[in-house]
Design brief:
The protein is α/β, with parallel strands linked by helices. The chain has 2 domains: 2-289, Carbamate kinase (3-Layer(aba) Sandwich); 301-449, 2-Layer Sandwich (VC0802-like), CATH 3.30.2130.10. 39% of the residues lie in helices and 21% in strands. Helix 2 runs antiparallel to helix 5, helix 11 (324-334) runs antiparallel to helix 12 and helix 13 (401-411) crosses helix 14. It binds aspartic acid (ASP).
């Protein structure tokens, strides 16, 4: 049995849903289908989830949001018309949609917004199930509450409760094709909660783990995961096979093909993941697996992410002071900041954090506390940093990767602010000025892929 998840662009219009129908029917083992809300049909289009958020915010702020509601209804109406739904069916689905919007609980704004957001996935799942039935398939919409898809009570950022897996396992016994809405579930008390944005990937991974699927297919709008961001290098090489660990490192640094939290359930259950293109389903896609044979190139992918900053602290004989690191990080903890990396030298240490977490007031407080509480000689903050990661299982067995990378960066006149080789040895990270980031990625791509 396979679990197949279709993302927003795969379900953005009637034509796209027709492609999805053909994909599902082409393989009888695609038995659990997870759907996102309709996404963008073209670059300037708005995702249904964003239309729903605008509607929810309108209601919370002004008590009414007729235009926003109309925008949502018309997207679904167009889809159903394009799929040739009979009138009574359209009315039933739109009636349910209206009811869900009306009955969203208003006691807490964040819960209200979650209930509104979920309408996109829920309605789309009903539509896809009905469309499959029109095609003559035995297909059923599955409600996450009925299936026991229980999540923690964290609106907009929920997590699966471990006991859900046992209940979800029984989906395996159900007959026909099951169409499951992604992105949301319920607390055991029955409150609707969603994952963070893009969370339908997580739903698919959880279901694949629960039913011990042979494969979790994640259908999107690219042929594969690329070795580098195609916005920086046009037509980059595709990745055929990548390990969970490599994927994890790359998504940390900005690879956005697959939701960061979605790997864990599949990884724990040892379910391989295949990223495929709804618009070109015969392309083999990218397989994410636990082990792979190394194919000669030590570097599997290059990622970069901006908006980091570094808090640099120096103090003479710092390395002899027991507890210095702990006390330094405690200041960050008490200021509610999570840190990303802590490269260090003999008399100095830097704490890398995400820039948006550090406002000017916090910055001043932190600098003052480090001087006062740790008697630092010097503290300075550097903003506008980018982190570039090169990732590959093959790096562990190859000598000279760092030398190749740094000399490529030197040739491209990129000044390195920081180098960090992950303890796992499958990644190497370079801190550079944000303005140099693109040049750095291009230089590394040419070095390791030679084209
Ligand atoms: N529709 C939701 C979002 O746009 C979830 C998803 O598509 O995965 O974030």
């Amino acid at each position: 049995m396979k679990v197949a998840k279709f993302g927003g662009t795969s379900l953005a219009s009637a034509e796209q849903i027709q492609k999805v129908g053909a994909i599902i029917r082409a393989d009888a083992s695609r038995r659990i289908i997870v759907v996102s809300a309709p996404g963008k049909r073209f670059k300037e289009d708005v995702k249904v989830t964003d239309l729903l958020i605008a509607y929810g915010q309108g209601i919370l702020q002004r008590g009414t949001a007729e235009a926003e509601k109309e925008a949502v209804l018309s997207r679904f109406q167009q889809i159903m018309e394009g799929l040739g739904f009979p009138n009574h069916q359209k009315e039933e689905i739109l009636g349910d949609l209206n009811k869900a919007l009306r009955s969203a609980p208003k006691d807490r704004p964040e819960r209200f917004l979650d209930a509104i957001k979920a309408v996109g996935e829920d309605t789309n799942a009903r539509i896809v199930a009905h469309y499959l039935r029109l095609l003559g398939e035995e297909a059923f919409y599955v409600n996450p509450w009925d299936a026991g898809f229980y999540l923690t009570d964290e609106a907009g950022n929920a997590q699966i409760l471990p006991e859900s897996y046992d209940r979800l396992r029984s989906l395996k016994e159900r007959k026909g094709i099951l169409v499951f809405p992604g992105f949301f579930g319920y607390t055991p008390e029955g409150v609707l909660v969603t994952f963070s944005r893009g969370g339908s990937d997580i739903t698919g991974s959880i279901l694949a783990a629960a039913v011990q699927a042979e494969l979790y297919e994640n259908f999107t709008d690219v042929d594969a995961i690329y070795t580098v961001n195609p916005r920086i290098i046009p037509n980059p090489r595709e990745i055929q096979e990548i390990t969970y660990r490599e994927m994890r490192e790359l998504s940390y640094a900005g690879f956005s093909v697959f939701h960061e939290e979605a790997l864990l359930p599949a990884y724990r259950a040892g379910i391989p993941v295949c990223v495929k293109n709804t618009n070109n389903p015969s392309a083999p896609g990218t397989m994410i697996v636990s082990e792979r044979t190394l194919n000669g190139n030590p570097v599997t992918g290059i990622a970069s992410e901006q908006n980091f900053c570094s808090v640099f602290v120096s103090k003479y004989l710092l390395h002899r002071e027991i507890g210095f690191g702990r006390r330094l990080l405690q200041i960050f903890e008490e200021e509610g900041l999570s840190y990303e990396h802590t490269p260090s030298g003999i008399d100095n240490i830097s704490v890398i954090i995400r820039e948006q977490a550090l406002d000017r007031a916090k910055e001043e407080r932190i600098v003052e506390r480090i001087y006062k509480e740790l008697n630092a000689d010097h503290v300075s903050i550097e903003r506008d940093l980018a982190l570039i990661m090169i990732v590959g299982e093959g790096m562990r067995e190859n000598i000279g990767i760092a030398a190749r990378a740094t000399s490529a960066l030197a040739k491209a006149k990129v000044n390195l602010e920081m180098i960090n080789q992950g303890s796992s040895e499958v990644s190497m990270m370079f801190g550079v000025k944000a303005a140099d980031a693109e040049r750095a990625v291009i230089a590394l791509y040419h070095e390791f892929y030679g084209d």
